[in-house]
Design goal:
About 20% of the residues lie in helices and about 35% in strands. The radius of gyration is 20 Å and the shape is globular. It starts with a helix and ends with a strand.
Length: about 240
């Protein structure tokens, strides 16, 4: 549609498996001559800051001259009274949205800070969510649209350092989540590991500086650097785990 009609076209939000298919699709030599990109809701100049897991794909005619604006909104949801609020987590906010009948592909990431959630969603769902989301668990909440051009959010990390035998994916996942390499290999072979949004099924895959690794059911981390080597040839590494 972007190629034939000369207009921007957007998907709904893609999960990591779907983003892997996206990368396969755009590398096809038979793909029409168009421009394309992924975005989770905010543009970043720094790769490390692109912490979104769920992203929307946009397709644009070549040399499209208009400003590119993804149809993504940010909704702030917070308790009406913090003093009497439950302690709310990601599962609570997502469950409340599911109870409204909203399908997951219409929602992006849900970022939480100080018991307040910032929900990324397709633009057409904004009014419905703001009007319908009034209670989470036993807590009454308010929901309002945020201006994404002034949205400021810094993800929190836990820095961890340690030694590994190599930069192989299985060994670094084992270190990051305190598991055996065999268990890490099972996560990889079962399609639960993604590096920079691409599914990786090879346990010997070598990580590079700045790679973002997602392990379903465990979490995500950034592979920061190799700080040193031991006399026995092991690597001292540093990672940052999203908290």
């Amino acid at each position: 549609m972007a190629y034939l009609k000369g207009i921007p076209v957007f998907t709904d939000f893609l999960d990591l498996k779907e983003q892997t298919k996206y990368f396969e699709f755009i590398s096809d030599k038979n793909m029409p001559p168009i421009d394309t990109m992924l975005n989770g809701g905010i543009f970043f100049l720094d790769k490390e800051a692109d912490f979104f897991e769920r992203k929307m794909a946009g397709f644009f005619p070549k040399n499209f001259s208009c400003d590119i604006s993804f149809p993504i909104i940010i909704i702030e949801v917070k308790p009406l009274n913090n003093k009497f609020s439950d302690s709310l987590n990601h599962r609570d906010f997502l469950g409340a949205l599911m109870n409204l009948g909203i399908e997951r592909h219409l929602l992006g990431d849900i970022l939480i800070k100080d018991n307040t959630a910032y929900i990324f969603a397709v633009k057409r769902m904004g009014e419905f969510i703001c009007e319908g989301l009034t209670k989470i668990k036993h807590t009454s909440v308010s929901a309002r649209l945020c201006d994404k051009y002034y949205f400021d959010y810094t993800p929190s990390y836990k820095e961890e350092k340690g030694s590994v035998a190599s930069r192989r994916l299985d060994g670094i996942i084992a270190f990051a989540f305190n598991m055996s390499r065999n268990d890490a290999s099972l996560f990889i072979s079962s399609g639960k590991v993604f590096v920079n949004s691409v599914e990786i099924t090879s346990k010997s895959h070598t990580l590079k500086y700045g790679d973002i690794v997602s392990v379903r059911g465990k979490g995500r981390f950034i592979f920061d650097e190799i700080t040193n080597m031991t006399k026995k040839g092991r690597y001292y590494i540093k990672i940052r785990k999203y908290t």
